[in-house]
Design brief:
Order of helices and strands: HHHHHHHHH
Shape: globular
Number of strands: 0
Oligomer: single chain
Subcellular location: Membrane
InterPro entries: DUF697
Pfam family, one: DUF697
Structural class: mainly alpha
Strand content: under 5%
Protein name: DUF697 domain-containing protein
Organism: Rhodohalobacter barkolensis
């Protein structure tokens, strides 16, 4: 069944790509004909240049796909020849990573130290993306657009983390990472609903307890913070799952990764809720003042 679905999707992807390519080439030819109406030389030169650009755009990804190295698959255990080969290959990849900044990466200890450096760097990306998810969705309060925005943020976060751990991941690397992260992060049974609400409630009580006392219209703020906290937590969790897939030395069970990512995301959530709530409160607090001052601003413009 999976093979048939994969085959159908592959054929569909090739068919759609071919149609898009035909449309692009057709538009380029029409534009070249338009330039040819001005002067025949313009038309011929532009057509050749357009076709070269189109060929490069199609062939460059294929060339990169075969040029870049394949993904490194962690072994089952941290002992034996397979683990030693993996550490050796991983050492070479980490040694060429500009974020690591180590003179030489050799052996398990150096690899762990290098991964620790990459963990810190990826944590910055995870927190930055979660903060953006919290503030944007807490202020926006638009379900459909927020869902698309969060999905885009999370895919970009996975891309950033993949680049942090592997300087130039291949298409295989990214497809493997996206598939595993999205399946692991969004599986329905991965986190119990009661546990989820408990995490968000705990983070909210730590993050907004001292902030809300200064704000009128507390209900509006709480609703905004609930929405922002939910999306921030999911984003943190996706980032932590991606981090663990990229930085592991041995294969880990999906359930173990989910549980660990949930626990780490919960620890990071309180700080993000606290910082984000201050910004949300600031915007909501200014809104009535801006509305009240509108008539006066209009009067000044009319004068």
């Amino acid at each position: 069944m999976k093979r048939e679905i994969r085959r159908v999707l592959t054929i569909t992807a090739f068919a759609v790509s071919a149609l898009i390519l035909i449309v692009i080439v057709n538009q380029l030819i029409q534009f070249a004909n338009f330039l040819g109406g001005i002067h025949p030389v313009f038309g011929q030169v532009s057509l050749i240049l357009f076709l070269i650009v189109a060929a490069v755009a199609v062939l460059a990804p294929v060339w990169l796909y075969f040029k870049l190295p394949g993904r490194l698959i962690p072994p089952e255990t941290d002992e034996g020849a397979e683990f030693d080969r993996y550490i050796e290959n991983l050492s070479k990849r980490l040694g060429g990573n500009p974020i690591v900044k180590m003179d030489q990466v050799s052996g398990v200890d150096d690899v762990r130290e290098a991964i620790h450096v990459l963990d810190k760097e990826s944590d910055k990306s995870i927190k930055r993306t979660a903060n953006r998810a919290f503030i944007t969705t807490a202020i926006s309060q638009n379900g459909a657009l927020d869902a698309l925005f969060i999905l885009g943020l999370q895919f970009r976060l996975i891309w950033e983390i993949a680049h942090i751990y592997a300087q130039r991941p291949t298409i295989k690397d990214l497809s493997y990472l996206y598939t595993n992260v999205m399946v692991t992060a969004f599986i329905a049974s991965s986190i119990d609903e009661a546990e989820y609400y408990e995490i968000v409630e705990s983070s909210m009580s730590q993050g907004i307890g001292s902030v809300l006392s200064f704000v009128p219209g507390t209900t509006m703020v709480i609703n905004s913070v609930i929405t922002g906290s939910s999306n921030a937590f999911l984003t943190l969790r996706v980032g932590k799952v991606a981090q663990q897939y990229c930085g592991t030395l041995v294969k880990r069970r999906r359930q173990s990764i989910r549980n660990s990512a949930t626990a780490e995301a919960a620890k990071m959530l309180a700080g993000i809720v606290y910082d984000g709530t201050k910004i949300v409160v600031k915007h909501i607090g200014k809104a009535p003042l801006r509305l009240a001052s509108k008539p006066f601003r209009r009067g000044k413009k009319e004068e």
